[in-house]
Amino acid sequence: MRITPLDPAFVAAIRAGGPDANGQPPERATSPGAGTPCRNCLHDISEGDEMLILAARPFPAPQPYAETGPVFLHAEACTAWNAPGLPPVMAVSPDYLIKAYSADHRILYGTGAVVPSGALGAEIEERLEREDVAFVDIRSARNNCFLARAVAG
Ligand SMILES: [Zn+2]
C-alpha cells in the first residue's frame, strides 16, 4: 500500500495563485496548529505558519462521484509525502472514513466505512486486494474532508 497526496500539479498551480476546484483563489490563513493536515506533505501545519484553505476535487474530471471539499496546504513549498505506510497524521483521530473506488473513479458500494485508526491500514489493505478496487480514499470521519488516497504497491 502506498499513500498518495493531492496531485502535485494541482498543488503547484494553487501555490502559484491558481483557482481551486470551485474556481476561486485559495484563502490564506494562519494555522492554529493541530488538526490542519497539509494534503501535500501529510503533516499538520505548525501553529503560526501560513496556510491555504481551498476546495479540492481529487478526481481527474467532474462527474457524479467526484466529490469536492475543503483542504489545507502549507502556503510555502513543502515536500510531498512519499514513504511507506500511513503518515503519522492518520493516527491522530480516533477513526477515519474510507471508501474504495473503481478504475473509472466511482464509489464501490459496500466498501465505505468509518474505521478505528488502529485498524486503518488493515481495512485499506483488505479493500485494495479486491480486483475491482483501483484505490481507497481516506477522509475525516467527522468533516468528510479528503485526506489522501491509498493505492496498491
Ligand atoms: Zn505541507
From TrEMBL:
It holds the Pfam family DUF1203. It comes from the Bacteria. Residues 16-37 are annotated as: Disordered. InterPro entries: DUF1203. This is Uncharacterized protein DUF1203.
